[in-house]
Description:
Layout: H1 2-6, E1 21-27, H2 29-34, H3 39-42, H4 47-51, H5 57-60, E2 82-88, H6 91-104, E3 121-123, E4 126-128, E5 159-160, E6 166-167, H7 192-195, E7 199-208, H8 210-225, H9 238-247, H10 287-291, E8 310-316, E9 331-338, H11 341-352, E10 374-378, E11 389-394, E12 398-408, H12 411-419
Antiparallel strand pairs: 1-2, 3-4, 5-6, 7-9, 7-12, 8-9, 10-11
Helix pairs in contact: 8-9
Amino acid sequence: MQKLLDAGYVTPGQWQEKPDATLNLALTFDGLRALGLPEESLATFPAEFREGMKVRAEVLGDVGLSSPENWDEPWKTRRVHILVMIYGRTADALEERCRKLRQLLPASVEELAPDQPAESLSINGETVRREHFGFADGLSNPDVEGVPREAGASKDIGNPDHSGRFRKIPLGEFILGYPGEGGDLAPMPLPNLLAHNATYMVFRKLEQNVPAFRDYIKAQADKFARTIPGGLPDDVSAEEFLAAKMMGRWQNGSSLIEYPHRPGKSLANSFAYAGDPAGARCPLGAHVRRTNPRDALGFGGKTMSRHRLIRRGIIYGKFLPPGKEDNERRGIIFIAFNSGFDQFEFVQRFWVNFGDDFEQGNDADPIVGSNQRGQMVIPGDEATGRRPFICFDIPRFVETKGGDYFFVPSLAALRLLASGRVHAS
Protein backbone atom coordinates (compact mmCIF):
# COMPACT_ATOMS: atom_id res chain seq x y z
CA MET A 1 0.00 0.00 0.00
CA GLN A 2 2.88 2.33 0.84
CA LYS A 3 4.32 1.73 -2.66
CA LEU A 4 0.99 2.67 -4.24
CA LEU A 5 0.85 5.85 -2.21
CA ASP A 6 4.48 6.75 -2.90
CA ALA A 7 3.93 6.24 -6.63
CA GLY A 8 0.87 8.52 -6.54
CA TYR A 9 -1.34 5.78 -7.98
CA VAL A 10 -4.21 6.23 -5.53
CA THR A 11 -6.50 8.90 -6.96
CA PRO A 12 -7.55 11.78 -4.66
CA GLY A 13 -11.17 12.82 -4.40
CA GLN A 14 -10.65 16.12 -6.20
CA TRP A 15 -8.84 16.95 -9.42
CA GLN A 16 -8.65 19.88 -11.83
CA GLU A 17 -8.91 17.70 -14.92
CA LYS A 18 -10.32 14.20 -15.05
CA PRO A 19 -7.38 11.75 -15.18
CA ASP A 20 -6.96 9.23 -17.98
CA ALA A 21 -6.96 6.49 -15.35
CA THR A 22 -7.91 6.35 -11.69
CA LEU A 23 -7.33 3.86 -8.89
CA ASN A 24 -9.21 3.66 -5.61
CA LEU A 25 -8.99 1.25 -2.69
CA ALA A 26 -11.63 -0.10 -0.33
CA LEU A 27 -11.21 -2.58 2.52
CA THR A 28 -13.40 -5.20 4.13
CA PHE A 29 -13.40 -5.85 7.86
CA ASP A 30 -11.15 -8.87 7.25
CA GLY A 31 -8.87 -6.61 5.22
CA LEU A 32 -8.50 -4.13 8.08
CA ARG A 33 -7.69 -6.99 10.43
CA ALA A 34 -5.11 -8.39 7.97
CA LEU A 35 -3.46 -4.95 7.91
CA GLY A 36 -2.97 -5.18 11.64
CA LEU A 37 -5.67 -2.83 12.92
CA PRO A 38 -5.86 -3.42 16.69
CA GLU A 39 -8.92 -5.16 18.10
CA GLU A 40 -9.93 -2.13 20.14
CA SER A 41 -10.22 -0.18 16.88
CA LEU A 42 -11.93 -3.01 14.92
CA ALA A 43 -14.57 -3.24 17.64
CA THR A 44 -15.67 0.36 16.93
CA PHE A 45 -16.83 -0.38 13.37
CA PRO A 46 -20.56 -0.93 12.77
CA ALA A 47 -21.96 -4.43 13.25
CA GLU A 48 -23.11 -4.73 9.62
CA PHE A 49 -19.56 -4.07 8.42
CA ARG A 50 -18.01 -6.48 10.90
CA GLU A 51 -20.37 -9.25 9.78
CA GLY A 52 -20.06 -8.59 6.03
CA MET A 53 -22.63 -8.96 3.27
CA LYS A 54 -22.48 -12.75 3.12
CA VAL A 55 -23.57 -13.08 6.73
CA ARG A 56 -26.27 -10.45 6.15
CA ALA A 57 -27.63 -12.28 3.06
CA GLU A 58 -30.98 -13.33 4.52
CA VAL A 59 -31.62 -9.85 5.95
CA LEU A 60 -30.95 -8.38 2.49
CA GLY A 61 -33.20 -10.86 0.67
CA ASP A 62 -30.25 -12.67 -0.90
CA VAL A 63 -31.94 -16.06 -0.74
CA GLY A 64 -32.60 -18.87 -3.23
CA LEU A 65 -30.58 -18.32 -6.40
CA SER A 66 -29.26 -15.08 -4.84
CA SER A 67 -27.89 -16.83 -1.75
CA PRO A 68 -24.09 -16.80 -1.21
CA GLU A 69 -23.68 -20.47 -2.17
CA ASN A 70 -24.77 -19.44 -5.67
CA TRP A 71 -22.52 -16.35 -5.92
CA ASP A 72 -19.70 -16.01 -8.40
CA GLU A 73 -16.06 -16.24 -7.45
CA PRO A 74 -14.22 -14.76 -5.68
CA TRP A 75 -17.21 -13.76 -3.54
CA LYS A 76 -18.50 -17.32 -3.14
CA THR A 77 -15.56 -19.01 -1.45
CA ARG A 78 -12.76 -16.48 -0.93
CA ARG A 79 -12.25 -13.80 1.72
CA VAL A 80 -11.77 -10.52 -0.07
CA HIS A 81 -9.56 -8.07 1.83
CA ILE A 82 -9.01 -5.18 -0.57
CA LEU A 83 -11.10 -4.07 -3.54
CA VAL A 84 -9.05 -2.25 -6.17
CA MET A 85 -11.23 -0.21 -8.54
CA ILE A 86 -9.48 1.01 -11.69
CA TYR A 87 -11.10 3.24 -14.31
CA GLY A 88 -9.65 4.18 -17.69
CA ARG A 89 -10.81 6.64 -20.31
CA THR A 90 -9.61 4.13 -22.91
CA ALA A 91 -8.87 0.42 -22.92
CA ASP A 92 -5.15 1.18 -23.28
CA ALA A 93 -5.17 3.56 -20.28
CA LEU A 94 -6.97 0.93 -18.22
CA GLU A 95 -4.56 -1.83 -19.20
CA GLU A 96 -1.54 0.35 -18.46
CA ARG A 97 -2.78 1.20 -14.95
CA CYS A 98 -3.51 -2.50 -14.28
CA ARG A 99 -0.03 -3.47 -15.49
CA LYS A 100 1.66 -0.93 -13.22
CA LEU A 101 -0.41 -2.07 -10.24
CA ARG A 102 0.58 -5.71 -10.74
CA GLN A 103 4.25 -4.71 -10.94
CA LEU A 104 3.99 -3.17 -7.47
CA LEU A 105 2.21 -6.06 -5.79
CA PRO A 106 4.43 -7.92 -3.33
CA ALA A 107 4.47 -11.70 -3.40
CA SER A 108 2.45 -11.82 -0.20
CA VAL A 109 -0.57 -10.24 -1.92
CA GLU A 110 -2.73 -12.60 -3.97
CA GLU A 111 -4.92 -11.26 -6.78
CA LEU A 112 -8.21 -13.13 -6.55
CA ALA A 113 -9.61 -14.24 -9.90
CA PRO A 114 -11.58 -13.40 -11.86
CA ASP A 115 -11.40 -9.65 -12.19
CA GLN A 116 -14.67 -7.85 -12.92
CA PRO A 117 -14.74 -5.80 -16.12
CA ALA A 118 -17.54 -3.26 -16.42
CA GLU A 119 -18.26 -0.38 -18.77
CA SER A 120 -21.01 1.63 -20.38
CA LEU A 121 -23.42 -0.34 -22.56
CA SER A 122 -22.65 -0.39 -26.27
CA ILE A 123 -25.53 -0.77 -28.76
CA ASN A 124 -24.58 -1.05 -32.43
CA GLY A 125 -21.24 0.59 -31.69
CA GLU A 126 -22.78 3.53 -29.84
CA THR A 127 -22.12 4.01 -26.12
CA VAL A 128 -25.37 4.64 -24.26
CA ARG A 129 -26.19 5.40 -20.63
CA ARG A 130 -28.73 2.63 -20.19
CA GLU A 131 -28.96 -0.59 -18.25
CA HIS A 132 -29.83 -3.98 -19.80
CA PHE A 133 -33.61 -3.70 -19.33
CA GLY A 134 -33.45 -0.64 -21.60
CA PHE A 135 -33.93 2.21 -19.12
CA ALA A 136 -31.75 5.30 -18.83
CA ASP A 137 -29.60 4.95 -15.70
CA GLY A 138 -27.79 7.29 -13.32
CA LEU A 139 -30.44 10.02 -13.54
CA SER A 140 -30.85 10.92 -9.92
CA ASN A 141 -28.15 11.27 -7.27
CA PRO A 142 -28.16 13.39 -4.12
CA ASP A 143 -27.22 17.05 -4.40
CA VAL A 144 -24.75 17.38 -1.51
CA GLU A 145 -23.82 20.48 0.51
CA GLY A 146 -20.35 21.81 -0.26
CA VAL A 147 -19.86 19.54 -3.25
CA PRO A 148 -19.75 21.24 -6.66
CA ARG A 149 -21.87 19.59 -9.31
CA GLU A 150 -20.02 17.66 -11.99
CA ALA A 151 -20.74 18.46 -15.61
CA GLY A 152 -23.91 16.67 -16.63
CA ALA A 153 -25.08 16.25 -13.04
CA SER A 154 -27.58 19.10 -13.14
CA LYS A 155 -30.44 16.68 -12.53
CA ASP A 156 -29.22 15.70 -9.08
CA ILE A 157 -31.59 16.78 -6.33
CA GLY A 158 -31.48 16.96 -2.57
CA ASN A 159 -34.18 16.19 -0.06
CA PRO A 160 -37.64 17.79 -0.17
CA ASP A 161 -38.30 20.67 2.23
CA HIS A 162 -41.47 21.92 3.87
CA SER A 163 -42.18 24.30 1.00
CA GLY A 164 -42.27 21.64 -1.72
CA ARG A 165 -38.82 22.47 -3.08
CA PHE A 166 -35.53 20.59 -2.69
CA ARG A 167 -32.55 21.43 -0.50
CA LYS A 168 -29.03 20.08 -0.56
CA ILE A 169 -28.24 17.12 1.67
CA PRO A 170 -25.67 17.53 4.48
CA LEU A 171 -22.27 16.01 3.69
CA GLY A 172 -22.37 13.92 6.84
CA GLU A 173 -25.00 11.62 5.34
CA PHE A 174 -22.25 10.23 3.13
CA ILE A 175 -18.83 11.20 4.56
CA LEU A 176 -17.73 10.48 8.14
CA GLY A 177 -16.76 13.40 10.34
CA TYR A 178 -19.33 15.95 9.15
CA PRO A 179 -22.83 16.85 10.41
CA GLY A 180 -25.70 15.00 8.80
CA GLU A 181 -29.45 15.55 8.90
CA GLY A 182 -30.28 17.00 12.33
CA GLY A 183 -26.73 18.31 12.76
CA ASP A 184 -25.34 15.17 14.38
CA LEU A 185 -22.32 13.08 13.37
CA ALA A 186 -22.64 9.48 12.25
CA PRO A 187 -20.91 7.02 14.62
CA MET A 188 -17.21 6.95 13.76
CA PRO A 189 -14.69 4.15 14.25
CA LEU A 190 -11.51 4.92 16.15
CA PRO A 191 -9.10 6.58 15.83
CA ASN A 192 -10.64 9.73 14.36
CA LEU A 193 -7.76 10.16 11.90
CA LEU A 194 -8.69 6.80 10.38
CA ALA A 195 -12.38 7.67 10.06
CA HIS A 196 -12.38 11.37 9.14
CA ASN A 197 -13.21 11.93 5.44
CA ALA A 198 -13.87 8.20 4.98
CA THR A 199 -17.09 6.55 3.84
CA TYR A 200 -18.70 3.13 3.69
CA MET A 201 -19.34 1.45 0.35
CA VAL A 202 -21.85 -1.19 -0.68
CA PHE A 203 -20.66 -3.33 -3.61
CA ARG A 204 -23.11 -5.74 -5.25
CA LYS A 205 -22.93 -7.76 -8.45
CA LEU A 206 -26.52 -7.90 -9.70
CA GLU A 207 -27.34 -10.18 -12.63
CA GLN A 208 -30.25 -9.15 -14.86
CA ASN A 209 -32.41 -11.81 -16.55
CA VAL A 210 -33.27 -9.81 -19.65
CA PRO A 211 -35.26 -12.53 -21.49
CA ALA A 212 -37.41 -13.13 -18.39
CA PHE A 213 -38.14 -9.40 -18.05
CA ARG A 214 -39.05 -9.00 -21.71
CA ASP A 215 -41.15 -12.19 -21.76
CA TYR A 216 -43.13 -11.09 -18.70
CA ILE A 217 -43.82 -7.63 -20.09
CA LYS A 218 -44.89 -9.13 -23.42
CA ALA A 219 -47.23 -11.65 -21.74
CA GLN A 220 -48.97 -8.98 -19.61
CA ALA A 221 -48.99 -6.02 -21.98
CA ASP A 222 -52.20 -6.74 -23.90
CA LYS A 223 -54.14 -7.40 -20.67
CA PHE A 224 -52.89 -4.09 -19.27
CA ALA A 225 -53.84 -2.26 -22.47
CA ARG A 226 -57.44 -3.40 -22.08
CA THR A 227 -57.74 -1.34 -18.89
CA ILE A 228 -57.27 1.86 -20.90
CA PRO A 229 -60.54 3.25 -22.30
CA GLY A 230 -60.16 4.35 -25.89
CA GLY A 231 -56.90 2.48 -26.33
CA LEU A 232 -53.27 3.36 -25.89
CA PRO A 233 -51.88 6.89 -26.31
CA ASP A 234 -50.43 7.63 -29.73
CA ASP A 235 -46.91 6.32 -30.35
CA VAL A 236 -46.84 4.31 -27.11
CA SER A 237 -46.85 0.50 -27.13
CA ALA A 238 -48.55 -1.55 -24.42
CA GLU A 239 -45.19 -3.10 -23.52
CA GLU A 240 -43.53 0.31 -23.20
CA PHE A 241 -46.40 1.64 -21.04
CA LEU A 242 -46.48 -1.37 -18.70
CA ALA A 243 -42.68 -1.42 -18.27
CA ALA A 244 -42.74 2.29 -17.40
CA LYS A 245 -45.43 1.70 -14.75
CA MET A 246 -43.31 -1.00 -13.12
CA MET A 247 -40.09 1.03 -13.24
CA GLY A 248 -41.68 4.43 -12.41
CA ARG A 249 -40.06 6.21 -15.37
CA TRP A 250 -40.22 5.94 -19.16
CA GLN A 251 -37.28 4.21 -20.81
CA ASN A 252 -35.76 7.54 -21.86
CA GLY A 253 -35.75 8.60 -18.19
CA SER A 254 -38.61 11.09 -18.29
CA SER A 255 -40.88 11.09 -15.25
CA LEU A 256 -44.33 9.51 -15.08
CA ILE A 257 -45.35 12.37 -12.80
CA GLU A 258 -44.59 14.97 -15.47
CA TYR A 259 -45.51 12.75 -18.42
CA PRO A 260 -48.12 10.16 -17.36
CA HIS A 261 -49.29 9.19 -20.87
CA ARG A 262 -46.22 9.16 -23.11
CA PRO A 263 -42.45 9.82 -22.78
CA GLY A 264 -41.42 13.44 -22.56
CA LYS A 265 -38.36 15.22 -23.87
CA SER A 266 -37.43 16.77 -20.53
CA LEU A 267 -35.53 14.69 -17.98
CA ALA A 268 -36.12 17.31 -15.25
CA ASN A 269 -35.74 15.62 -11.89
CA SER A 270 -37.29 18.08 -9.45
CA PHE A 271 -40.71 16.41 -9.34
CA ALA A 272 -42.63 15.29 -6.27
CA TYR A 273 -45.15 12.56 -5.50
CA ALA A 274 -47.36 14.41 -3.01
CA GLY A 275 -49.70 15.51 -5.83
CA ASP A 276 -50.15 11.88 -6.86
CA PRO A 277 -51.16 10.29 -3.54
CA ALA A 278 -53.03 7.33 -5.06
CA GLY A 279 -50.35 6.51 -7.63
CA ALA A 280 -52.52 7.25 -10.68
CA ARG A 281 -49.50 8.63 -12.52
CA CYS A 282 -46.58 6.78 -10.91
CA PRO A 283 -47.72 3.60 -9.09
CA LEU A 284 -47.06 3.52 -5.35
CA GLY A 285 -45.05 0.30 -5.73
CA ALA A 286 -42.94 1.34 -8.74
CA HIS A 287 -39.18 0.83 -8.44
CA VAL A 288 -37.99 4.46 -8.51
CA ARG A 289 -40.79 5.64 -6.19
CA ARG A 290 -39.73 3.06 -3.60
CA THR A 291 -35.99 3.69 -3.74
CA ASN A 292 -36.33 7.49 -3.57
CA PRO A 293 -39.83 8.31 -2.31
CA ARG A 294 -39.14 12.06 -2.07
CA ASP A 295 -42.26 13.51 -0.36
CA ALA A 296 -44.47 10.45 -0.96
CA LEU A 297 -44.41 9.37 2.70
CA GLY A 298 -45.65 12.71 4.04
CA PHE A 299 -44.18 14.95 6.75
CA GLY A 300 -42.44 17.07 4.11
CA GLY A 301 -40.04 14.26 3.24
CA LYS A 302 -38.55 14.06 6.75
CA THR A 303 -39.27 10.34 7.03
CA MET A 304 -36.96 9.54 4.11
CA SER A 305 -34.23 12.14 4.58
CA ARG A 306 -31.90 9.77 6.49
CA HIS A 307 -32.05 7.06 3.82
CA ARG A 308 -30.35 8.63 0.78
CA LEU A 309 -27.50 6.88 -1.03
CA ILE A 310 -24.91 8.11 -3.50
CA ARG A 311 -25.29 5.40 -6.10
CA ARG A 312 -23.41 4.37 -9.21
CA GLY A 313 -24.28 1.54 -11.58
CA ILE A 314 -21.75 0.12 -14.05
CA ILE A 315 -22.82 -2.35 -16.70
CA TYR A 316 -21.23 -5.72 -17.33
CA GLY A 317 -22.04 -8.08 -20.19
CA LYS A 318 -23.13 -7.42 -23.77
CA PHE A 319 -26.37 -5.85 -24.96
CA LEU A 320 -29.03 -8.41 -25.93
CA PRO A 321 -31.05 -7.24 -28.97
CA PRO A 322 -34.85 -7.51 -28.58
CA GLY A 323 -36.21 -10.88 -29.67
CA LYS A 324 -32.88 -12.61 -29.15
CA GLU A 325 -31.75 -15.06 -26.47
CA ASP A 326 -28.27 -16.29 -25.64
CA ASN A 327 -26.27 -17.82 -22.81
CA GLU A 328 -24.35 -14.64 -21.97
CA ARG A 329 -24.50 -13.27 -18.46
CA ARG A 330 -25.18 -9.59 -17.97
CA GLY A 331 -26.08 -7.19 -15.23
CA ILE A 332 -24.96 -4.20 -13.24
CA ILE A 333 -22.30 -3.52 -10.63
CA PHE A 334 -24.20 -1.64 -7.93
CA ILE A 335 -22.09 0.73 -5.83
CA ALA A 336 -23.53 2.90 -3.07
CA PHE A 337 -21.87 5.22 -0.55
CA ASN A 338 -23.31 6.09 2.86
CA SER A 339 -22.08 7.08 6.31
CA GLY A 340 -23.63 3.98 7.86
CA PHE A 341 -24.83 0.68 6.43
CA ASP A 342 -28.16 1.20 8.17
CA GLN A 343 -28.95 3.63 5.32
CA PHE A 344 -28.54 0.99 2.58
CA GLU A 345 -30.04 -1.83 4.62
CA PHE A 346 -33.14 0.22 5.44
CA VAL A 347 -33.81 0.86 1.75
CA GLN A 348 -33.15 -2.77 0.84
CA ARG A 349 -35.15 -4.33 3.66
CA PHE A 350 -38.12 -2.00 4.11
CA TRP A 351 -38.56 -0.32 0.73
CA VAL A 352 -37.23 -2.81 -1.85
CA ASN A 353 -38.20 -6.14 -0.28
CA PHE A 354 -41.23 -5.00 1.71
CA GLY A 355 -44.02 -2.66 0.70
CA ASP A 356 -45.87 -1.59 3.83
CA ASP A 357 -44.59 2.02 3.74
CA PHE A 358 -46.14 2.29 0.27
CA GLU A 359 -49.45 0.57 1.10
CA GLN A 360 -48.19 -2.52 -0.76
CA GLY A 361 -48.20 -5.00 2.14
CA ASN A 362 -45.68 -7.77 1.50
CA ASP A 363 -45.29 -6.94 -2.19
CA ALA A 364 -41.65 -6.34 -3.08
CA ASP A 365 -40.14 -4.02 -5.68
CA PRO A 366 -41.32 -5.40 -9.08
CA ILE A 367 -37.90 -4.89 -10.72
CA VAL A 368 -35.25 -5.71 -8.10
CA GLY A 369 -37.26 -7.20 -5.23
CA SER A 370 -36.55 -10.61 -3.72
CA ASN A 371 -39.97 -12.19 -4.28
CA GLN A 372 -39.94 -15.24 -6.51
CA ARG A 373 -43.61 -14.87 -7.52
CA GLY A 374 -44.54 -11.34 -6.54
CA GLN A 375 -47.30 -9.02 -7.54
CA MET A 376 -47.80 -5.31 -8.10
CA VAL A 377 -50.90 -3.15 -8.18
CA ILE A 378 -51.04 -0.46 -10.85
CA PRO A 379 -53.74 1.90 -9.55
CA GLY A 380 -56.43 3.19 -11.87
CA ASP A 381 -56.70 6.79 -13.02
CA GLU A 382 -60.01 8.58 -12.45
CA ALA A 383 -58.96 11.39 -14.79
CA THR A 384 -58.70 9.08 -17.81
CA GLY A 385 -60.92 6.21 -16.74
CA ARG A 386 -58.04 3.70 -16.78
CA ARG A 387 -58.93 0.78 -14.54
CA PRO A 388 -56.61 -0.76 -11.92
CA PHE A 389 -54.40 -3.63 -13.05
CA ILE A 390 -52.60 -6.25 -11.02
CA CYS A 391 -49.37 -7.83 -12.25
CA PHE A 392 -49.42 -11.39 -10.87
CA ASP A 393 -46.60 -13.94 -10.64
CA ILE A 394 -43.76 -11.49 -11.25
CA PRO A 395 -40.56 -13.58 -11.38
CA ARG A 396 -37.30 -12.41 -9.84
CA PHE A 397 -35.63 -10.47 -12.64
CA VAL A 398 -32.43 -9.55 -10.74
CA GLU A 399 -30.26 -11.96 -8.74
CA THR A 400 -27.32 -11.15 -6.48
CA LYS A 401 -24.08 -12.83 -7.57
CA GLY A 402 -21.59 -11.38 -5.12
CA GLY A 403 -20.54 -8.39 -3.09
CA ASP A 404 -19.49 -7.13 0.30
CA TYR A 405 -19.37 -4.11 2.60
CA PHE A 406 -16.27 -1.90 2.38
CA PHE A 407 -14.58 0.90 4.29
CA VAL A 408 -13.16 3.58 1.97
CA PRO A 409 -10.45 5.54 3.83
CA SER A 410 -9.11 8.96 2.97
CA LEU A 411 -5.56 9.29 1.64
CA ALA A 412 -4.41 10.34 5.13
CA ALA A 413 -6.01 7.23 6.60
CA LEU A 414 -4.40 5.00 3.96
CA ARG A 415 -1.02 6.41 4.96
CA LEU A 416 -1.84 5.71 8.60
CA LEU A 417 -2.80 2.11 7.74
CA ALA A 418 0.36 1.68 5.67
CA SER A 419 2.46 2.85 8.60
CA GLY A 420 1.16 -0.01 10.75
CA ARG A 421 0.94 2.36 13.73
CA VAL A 422 -2.80 2.61 14.29
CA HIS A 423 -3.96 3.01 17.88
CA ALA A 424 -7.59 3.26 18.91
CA SER A 425 -6.98 6.22 21.25
